[in-house]
Structures are given as C-alpha cells and as structure tokens.
C-alpha cells in the first residue's frame, strides 16, 4: 500500500546556505510526481530530503515538515535508516554493488541488514523483484553473474529491483534515465507506469517530454539566480501544467525558452 | 598518447633523404649512432685501462660511460647543433641515472644470494644456536625465524585494528578539528625514526615493569608504532577509492551507516586493504634498530612474547656480522632468508591486489 | 514473509509498522565510537612517545657534567657538547646522502615518466620500489662487505688527485668513512624520492607538454619548460621526506662508519663523525642507568630534528595542493 507525503514549508540548508526555500506540496499515492526545473534549482536536493539522504552530506539539515501518512519523517525519535526502508531511491547513474552477483544485488537490502531469510523466500523475492523491474526474463539464467556485467539500462532496472525488494512505500528516482540510451529509457518509463499501481513515485527529470509522458502531477522548481535558494513555483496535474501553466516562468521553461 | 611519439628529438627522422623540405634541412645523426658510440666508448675505455693498468669491469663501464656521453654530445653538437646536443646529453644522463640505480639493486641481490647460499638450507633453517661457539659452522636461525614471526605477528595484531579503525574514522566519520589533528599526527608518526620507536617502547615498558624487563612484546610495540601510520595511509587511500554512489545505494536501502561501511565499503576495498597490510608487514619485518634496543638476542627459541629476550632475523644477522669469521656467512644466510620472506610478502600482496580487486566498470 | 507473485508482493505491506521510532542504533554508535577512539588513540600514543622519552631522558637532562662524566664513554664537558657533534654528524651524513640521491632520483623519475617506453614504465617503477623493500640490515651488510672494497680504488684516486681540498684529504682504507655511509643512505632513500617525483612528473598537464612540443622544442626543452617547473615543489618535498628518512636510519651507518665525535668535514677520513641513531644502537645494549638516559636524550634530539624536517615537507606538499587545486 503506497503512502502519500505532505510537505509543508520545507527549507533545506547546506550549513548556513539556504538551498531550497519554503516548499509546500502534496505527493499523492499511486501516482508519478515529476519534479522539473533548470539545473541547480534544488529539485534533487528536495528529493533527497524525502528519505533523509541529504543527511549524508555533512552540514545538510532541514526546517519544516514532511509527513508520510500522518508520520512526521523529521520527528526527533525517527531513525533516518527506518525512513529509508520505507522510501526507496534510484540514482542518476546505475550503481549495482560490484562485489555482488545479480541475485545478491537484489537481496542487498535484506543481506546488508543482517536479516535472515530462508532460501526459498530469497528466491521468491529475487524473482518477484526482478519481474517487478521487468528484468527477470533477461537475467534469470545468469543470476550468479556479477551485476556490473549488465548493460547500463539493465543495471538501472537491477537497481530498481534492488530498491523494491525492500518493499518501500515510496520510490524516489533522481534522473534515472539521464545516463541511459533511448531504448533503455523507454524500458524504464514503461516500468514506471507499471510501478505506480503499487508505489508512490517521485521522479526528478531534465527531460520535459519524459515528465509529460510518465507523470500524473508535475512540480516546477526555479531559482532566481546563483546563490539564491531554489523555490517551488507551481504544481498541478501534468496535463494542465503543460497546456496552461499559471505562472509565466513555467511556460517559458516548458516551451524551452530557458533552462 | 606517449610523449615519445610527438618528439622531434627521437632519432627516427630520416636523415637527409626526406621529401619534406623541413626534414631535409635538419641534419641528424643516424638512428644507430648512440649504439655505435656506446660500443666505441667501452672499447676505447678497455684500451686505455689495459695500457695504464688492469681493466676491471667497473672501471671499463665507468670510463666507457663517460666517453660515450662526451663522444655523442660533441659529435651531435658538430653535426646537429647545440639544441640537439643538449637534448642528447639530457637523454644520456637520465638513462644513466636509471642504470646507476640498478647497480645497487642487482649487486645486492646477487651478493646476498651467492654469499647466503653457502649456509642456507634445511639444517640452517631448522636449528638454533644453542651450544654453538667459536669457529663452529653448525647452528642456524630457527629461533630467529620464530622470534621474527611472533614479534611481527604481534605488531600486526596491534596495528591492523587500530589502523583500520582510524582510517575508517578519517574517511567515513571524521570532520572538523579532530580529524585534521589526527591526519597531521599520522604524518608525524610516519616520520618517527625507527630507533626512536625502539626508545619509546623501551621507556614505556621499563617504567612500568622495571629497568631489567625484556620481552618480545616490547619489540612488537615498537614495530606497531612504525606500522600503524603505514596501515592508516594505505587503508585510507583504499577507502577513498570506493565510489560514493555505492555508499548512497546502500544507505538508500535503509542500511545503517556502520553496516554500510562494514559490508559495502570494506567489502569493496578488501583486496586493496589486505595488499596494504601485507606491504606494511614487509616494511617492518626487516626493522633492526628498535629490536636491537628492546628484544636483544638469545640462542634458543623463546615462544613467550611476554617474558625474556627473543632472537630475530635482523638482529641475528647484525650480531653475527659483528662477530666476524663464520658469523659473516651466517649473517648473509640470515639476510637471504629475510629477503626471501620480504619478497614473498610483496609477491603475495601484488597477487591479492591483482586477483581479488573488484572489476568496476568506472 | 512468503512472496508468490509480483502483484501480491505489496499486499502485505499494510500490516507493516509505521516508520518505527529509532532504537538508537546501538551497534552503529559502538562502531562510530570505536573508530573515533582509534583516532584519538593516535593522539594519545604520540603524546606518550614525547612524554615517555622526556621522563626517561630527564635524569640526563638535569645531571651535572661531573655525574655524566662517570659514564665510561662520556668525554664531553656537558650534555649539549656531547649531542652537538652527533647532530652535526647526523646532518652531514644525511645532507651528503641527499646531495647524491636527489639528482639521481630526479633522473630516474624523468626516465620512467618521460623517457622509457610506456609499456616498460610500470615495471621499471616496481624495480625501483624493490629497493625500498630491502631491510636496512641487508643494506648494512652490502655496504660493509661489498661496497667498501669497490669504493676503495675510487677514494684512493679521489684523495690522491683532489687531496689538496680538505674535504677529500686523509683517506685511509678500508673506506669506513662518512662518504661511504652517505652513499649507502643515498641508495636507501632513492626509492621514496623517486616515487614521489615520478608521481608529480606524471601529473604534468599534457597541454603544457604539447604546447612546448608544438613550439618545436626538443624533448629536453619540453622537460625543462613544462615538467620541471611543474614538479619543482614536489621534488623538494620528496627530498625532505628522504632527508627525514636518512636522519633516522641506523643500521647502514652503524655497520659502515668508523665512529668519531668531531665537528669534522673530512669526508674520506675514518673516525671523524657519528650519527645519533647509530650511536644509540652501538651503545644502548650495554648501557645502564644514567647512560641510558643520556642516549635517550640524544634520541629526543633526533625526534625533534626529524619532526621539524617532516613538518617542512608536509607544509610544502600542503601548499602545493592549494596551488594545484585550480587545475
């Protein structure tokens, strides 16, 4: 069962530097939300605050609220590790673990956490996750080969399989196709529309066509200038955003006048 | 692309026969000229030395090298001009520098093997020095091998956990002033002379256990003082090679930081870490001075690291050399053993790094 | 939980707890504490080195000259007068070693980085690194038993022809003089200076190299215009690291030199100089009481000298990093 996330008045800082200011948005369950905007506008930074991955960078911290189905992700007694088990992430460049086989990569979330799992459960989980990532048929005969031997697109789908094997509620994708060729990109986009039946998906993309193709709702971020914080300009249904945005900057960006 | 390919200085330009005008104007020495000068230099040197005295190999090669450099540079200056002559002289000197460094390497290995082979053998390796005195040629280094392995092993057991954890701190946790201080002090530690490490271990143990205390552990502490910074540096380097993306991938799966470090970062860099540890063992296993001060030497095997003096290969070799006579043969044989151990460690280290490092695409 | 088919995979998730409150991550905190502790241990150990050396040297530092002169080998007027010639000998041997090693090392580094065929370069690098792997006592044996007889005719010739210069006067066979010791030291510090210089030379921006070659420079002119200026500070810091190592090296000097305690510049004369490290190693095993303290006091002096030299080396490296940060 996927969950909704309500963000209100979220500020993101790197040390003293305010990177993203005052974001308020609702992320609906079982849908794809696309974050678009020019480079450096803070959309990736904002995405990483949804599973507290920004805390990996020293000095990064947030103010404001991010609530997932009534649970504040930033409540003082919440463990970021637990947040990340509920909110999975796929990165810009495919990053399978080079020391692990395809199978071990899928099971990484379980194995790395020292959890015990029976052999048959493990096999089931590998199969269901790889099928969920549309990769099963391509790799079922070589599950014990290293994950780094796959093509870029296959590696990215392996990373998606690895993320959904942990059974998250939400899946964050940070420009998941920017390092891939068009055919692999298409495969990932198809996969996204299947996954949204079961997950809340948030995707950061530079590719406006991609946002239009895959997302249900679109949020446009912008930045006033270097050194200024990024802001959420407007958010709405993708169809509305691309046909009749209310803000001039959105229209300029979407029509390719800048960015 | 190699620089060599671009350099006009390589004597590969066809001399005089070129169709390109630029080449034709440049008069160059033929490609075989350096070889001819080398052969000529050696021959003339042999001639000179044969007339003036006895030609030794060192003398002929030394004088031949000087004649070669002079001959080639002067000829080049006349034929090719000053710039090319300087270039040839530089090439000659740089190549000589390299060849010069090979002299100690080759001569050292050669003399250790030939002189060491005299006593080296199964009996030498498996007996100790109990009851051996005067000109007796019996006796061996079993006790010293045991001592060296025990002390170096203990030093490794002390250094590796501390070094590994410190490196993890510096790469994964360390921020701010404390991390900067530790980095700085690891640098300082790298520069501690081995004899000072020996003095420190001596001071530490004699202050606690009294001035007459001697034990293998003193030597192990001294060696670990020298070994720890080497371990830290090499592990640090290996950990920094692990791409950040792998850490993020693991953290994003909801794996706690410490498990990410243990199971992803260390797992990915384990081959490099083991290699670094092996090389650091090879580095301290031949240390002599600190052991001379702390552990001393005895004639029989001592298995107890915490009680009494111990024999070690380097100290054994030194004491036997001092003693002279047949002791010198023993010193060479012990040196051969030591070099074999060091080379073996180096070889294993290189093999590990070649065989087990993960094949990352990036 | 059993998983059968992809659609039902997510069915059971509703029963999963909400984001659980943190249990504190005890293991994680223990692990972080352990590694921080190891780092702090480094601070403690270094402080301990200084403190213990001072404690043990204290009796000698505070003893009167008369007390010190009861030590059989203590002939000087005061501790300072005893340490002085040793510091001089240490510096002289190390600087001589450096003077020999640096040009050769730079030559080797250039040979490997810019002259040797690229396929061979790495193997040649290993060959030089091999020199670093050889134990110091083996260098001592090699120096004392192989090198000294080889140097004898050369030193005889040098003393004969250039003997009017005091530096080279008064040679006596065997060649157990500071020059021989420095040559052995030079061989021992060659690998580290070569390794660091080689790394720096290899980092020379290819653009600079190509720019000078495009101007029609010969290979040497390219090296002089692009490689050497770029690598200068790297070579300097490499030399300082080598110097630090030469200062503390014990066995090679101990086994080669015939010791003396003079401020003497006779490089080929035996019985003139001695280094701190070799002096400690030769006297320590038989020493007791105040003699031990005196030797540890000289060790303290060596510690301070190497500390300063290494600091300067690190400072140069750090400064260089700042400059090259822009590239």
UniProtKB/TrEMBL annotation, chain A:
Q: Does the keyword Transport apply?
A: yes
Under SUPFAM superfamilies, the record lists: P-loop containing nucleoside triphosphate hydrolases
Gene Ontology molecular function: ATP binding
Q: Does the keyword Signal apply?
A: no
Q: Which InterPro entries match?
A: AAA+_ATPase, ABC_transporter-like_ATP-bd, ABC_transporter-like_CS, P-loop_NTPase, PstB-like
Q: Which SMART domains match?
A: AAA (SM00382)
The ABC transporter domain is annotated at: 5-248
Q: Which domain of life is it from?
A: Bacteria
> One of this protein's Pfam families, by short name?
ABC_tran
Q: Which residues cross the membrane?
A: none
- List the keywords (alphabetical): ATP-binding, Nucleotide-binding, Translocase, Transport
Q: Which PANTHER family match?
A: ABC TRANSPORTER I FAMILY MEMBER 17
Name assigned to this protein: Phosphate ABC transporter ATP-binding protein
Q: Which organism is it from?
A: Oerskovia merdavium
TrEMBL record, chain B:
The job of this chain, per UniProt, is described as: Part of the binding-protein-dependent transport system for phosphate; probably responsible for the translocation of the substrate across the membrane.
Q: Which family does it belong to?
A: Belongs to the binding-protein-dependent transport system permease family. CysTW subfamily.
The answer, when asked if Nucleotide-binding is one of the entry's keywords, is no
The membrane topology term of the UniProt record is:
Multi-pass membrane protein
Write down what this protein is called.
Phosphate transport system permease protein PstA
Q: Which Pfam families does this UniProt record tie to the protein? A: BPD_transp_1
- Key words, A-Z: Cell membrane, Membrane, Phosphate transport, Transmembrane, Transmembrane helix, Transport
Signal peptide as annotated in the record? none
Compartments reported by the entry: Cell membrane
Q: Which domain of life is it from?
A: Bacteria
Annotated ABC transmembrane type-1 domain residues: 145-349
Q: Which residues cross the membrane?
A: 32-51, 57-79, 91-113, 141-170, 182-209, 215-232, 264-285, 331-352
Q: Does the keyword Ion transport apply?
A: no
TrEMBL record, chain C:
Quick one: where is this thing mainly located?
membrane
Q: Which residues form the ABC transmembrane type-1 domain?
A: 87-313
InterPro entries this protein is in? MetI-like (IPR000515), MetI-like_sf (IPR035906), Phosphate_PstC (IPR011864), Phosphate_Transport_Permease (IPR051124)
Sequence similarity: Belongs to the binding-protein-dependent transport system permease family. CysTW subfamily.
Q: Mind telling me what this protein is named?
A: Phosphate transport system permease protein
- GO BP term (any one): phosphate ion transport
Subcellular compartments: Cell membrane
Q: Which gene encodes it?
A: pstC
Query: What job does this protein perform?
Result: Part of the binding-protein-dependent transport system for phosphate; probably responsible for the translocation of the substrate across the membrane.
Keyword ATP-binding listed: no
Return the PROSITE patterns for the record: ABC_TM1 (PS50928)
Organism of origin? Oerskovia enterophila
Q: What Pfam families does this protein's entry cite?
A: BPD_transp_1
Q: Name the Gene Ontology molecular function terms of this record.
A: phosphate transmembrane transporter activity
Q: Does the keyword Coiled coil apply?
A: no
